[in-house]
Structures are given as structure tokens and as C-alpha cells.
Amino acid sequence: MELLAKIRRNTAKIGVIGLGYVGLPLAVAFAEAGFPVLGIDIQQKRVDLVNNGCPYIADVSRKALKEVVRKGLLEATTDQSRVKEVDAICICVPTPLTKTKDPDLTYVIGETETVSRYLQKGQLVVLESTTYPGTTREVMLPILERSGLKAGRDFYLAFSPERVDPGSKNYSIRNTPKVVGGIDGKSTKLATQLYSQIVDKVVPVSNPEVAEMTKVFENVFRNVNIALVNELTLLCEKMGMSVWEVIDAAATKPFGYMPFYPGPGVGGHCIPLDPYYLANKAREHDFHTRFIELAADINERMPYYVVSRISDALNSKGKTLHGSRILVLGVAYKKDVEDVRESPSLKLIKLLLEKRANVSYNDPYVSSVRVNQNDLSSVELTDERLTSADCVVIATDHSCYGYRSIAQKAQLVFDTRGATRKLKSKNIIRL
Ligand SMILES: NC(=O)c1ccc[n+]([C@@H]2O[C@H](COP(=O)([O-])OP(=O)(O)OC[C@H]3O[C@@H](n4cnc5c(N)ncnc54)[C@H](O)[C@@H]3O)[C@@H](O)[C@H]2O)c1
Question: Is 396 near ligand 1, meaning CB less than 6 Å away?
């Protein structure tokens, strides 16, 4: 197989379609390994930034990007017809939900139609976007075969989910095992070899459906366990104990337990969305994924619960939410990242604004956000702001915050993340 030899020699040209949180780090990883890489995105601005060596994703280092662009190993373009030039195509486009929380495959289908238009004999196509089991074979394959080429004979097709952990200092593309499932043996072999060039451990599975299910299962697992601990939080509050102390104590068990932490909800592009992909597909089989529905129900109620607890805390000081100055710390969906997609902090701000609270926020990673029709900008975290706020809400526990100093200055702190759990202070209320 000519393509297999090219992959082994790192000379196969790789096309990465969609240069976002998943695609840009992947493109840089292939280029750093010596592969010539063509990145394709519909946003001209992103393409220009890549070609100028300017990363817009925190996990991509400026030095690494500049270096691969300077060496001519990575080039970006908006010209989709150039997929003709590449040997392997990795598709990393978004997979959002519709307003009614159904899978929205518009990007995947649209891009597959484009690839089909320019598909060449011998090319390998790999979908990396998270989706429901069946997407690669039932949705993509027929579209690609409209090219007149036959899957498994003229071109190869596989699914390999991305497992990036944004903001992580411990896990990178290199040391995160990668699951691969092709529509046939040849496709699996090619895709396995491709990722083996940049990942220490590749895990081939029987087919794309298993690979697709693996990814959604991983995210459902997180979502369900977060919901479990969120529910326990509500009970602990009623029983007058600290859920944080319970979790820390349980985490001393060296086997059979894994800590998950409560919070104001779940955010990001994966955990709140992907379970719905599976729940929706399951209905085709007259099957109801009850854990998924229950977890979504519990997690989606958390911002409402947090707002009611803040309201109670203010009430105990003779204040109402209406008119109170609330300073929200952190609007990114998790600590130390700049991503606000589906962030529970935004939901909290929305609910607080609806209660007519006077809301401001600080986030060193996010300079502005739009909540409903309101444009908010991050305010400076001054002593004056901390002391004058009726309540400081820790919504995202960024590492850079000085929690001891915040707790000393604020009149009241509502901590949704356990960031202050080592501190003893009467003005701190925790989830
Ligand atoms: N962000 C994560 O942490 C993460 C982790 C694992 C898996 N995923 C999955 O990976 C996929 C991509 O997520 P992301 O976070 O990188 O999204 P993103 O929004 O950061 O990036 C997607 C990119 O695709 C581009 N794009 C959209 N349509 C295109 C098209 N037709 N042609 C070329 N470019 C196109 C967009 O302009 C954007 O730059 C999703 O399915 C997501 O669920 C994301």
C-alpha cells in the first residue's frame, strides 16, 4: 500500500479540516513530526493567523506554530478544493446541538459533501468530531461514494475521536491513547499507522461504531458522575455537612473510587452536548438512555440551585438579590482555559440578571461576554470591587486567583467550586 509507506516515512500530506480546539493542535502535532500539513478552515481570520504563526488556541505554543510555518510544514487555506492535494484528511468540524437539543450534523455533512466533490483515489478520510455511533458509515460513507469512488477499495474511511483535555499540563496528543475504528481492515490499518506517528499508543477497535460509542460513553460517564456528586451536594446541604469533606475522605480509598466534583453545572463543547447525541440515536432503537436524561436534568438545574443559595445567603444578611452587587469570578467553563462555550457561569449571570442583580465579572482569560442582550466586559479585580460587592461568586476556580485574599476582603463569598475549602472563614458559603 503506497499510502502506508508514505505515512511510515512521515511524507504523506495531511489535510486537517477545521482549525479549532481539536484541529489546530492536531495540525501542529503532525507538522512537528515532519508531515507536510494543509489546514483548511472556513474562517479567513483563523487561516491568516495560522499562516502568520499566531496561535489563537491556548494549548498551541507560539514557538511551535511559528517553527512549523517557517519550515513550510504547515500552511492554512480556506480553499476547500485543495483537499485534492492531500493523502489523508482529518475532519475536526463542530458537532453542536439544535435548539431542541437534537444532533446537528450540518457541519459534518456539509464538509463530507465538499470532500466528496474533490475525493481522490487512495485517500484516507478520518472523522474526529464527536458524534453518535453510525455517523461515519451511515452518513458519511454514502456521501463520499457519490464521488464514484468505492469505500475500502478506492478510498479509506475511519473514525478516531479526539480526547483533548484543554488546559491540561499532564496530557497532550502524544501521551493520550487514541482509539481508531475503520470501516474495514485496510482503513483501520492506515488510520492506526497515521496516528502512531504522533501518539504513543493507538488502540484499534473493530469498526467506526465502536470508536464512536467509546467517545460518547467517556463523556456520558463524566456527565453521569458529575450529576451524582451534584445530587449528593444537595443532600449534604440538607443534612448539614460539607460535600467537599466527604469527597476528600472518599478519595483516600485506593481502589474502586474516583473523585468527581460538584459545580454550578457542566460546560464546554463536549460534556453537556455529546450525551444527547447518544440519547437521540438510542431512540431509533426504541431505547431510552435514562442515566443520560437524569444526569442532564440534575446538571441543568445546578445554576438555578446556586442562584437560590446565593439569594438565601443574601437574605440572611437582610439583602435581596434584586439590586445587590454580585461579582462573578470566572466565566470560562473550566479553570485555566479561555473557552466559554456552554459555560455554567454564563447561565448563572443570566439568572442573576433576570433577578435584577447588579452583576459584574472578572476573568483573566475572557475579556468580554454576551449574555442575553447584555455585553459585559471583565472588570479589574481591585480591593474596592471585592469589598463593595454584596457577594463574590467563585464560578470558575482559575489557579491565578488569590482565594485567601479574596475571602479576607469580600463581605460574602459563594464558592461553587470548593476553591476555598482549605480556608476557615464565616463569610464563605460553599456549594
Ligand atoms: N474542544 C474540545 O475540548 C473537544 C474535545 C474532544 C472532542 N471535541 C470535538 O471535536 C469537534 C471540533 O470541536 P472544536 O472544539 O475543535 O470546535 P471549534 O469550534 O473550536 O473548531 C471548529 C473549526 O471548524 C471550522 N469549520 C466549521 N465548518 C467548517 C468547514 N466546513 N470547513 C472547514 N472548517 C470548518 C470552524 O471555523 C472552526 O475553526 C467537535 O465534534 C467536538 O465535539 C472537542
Answer: no
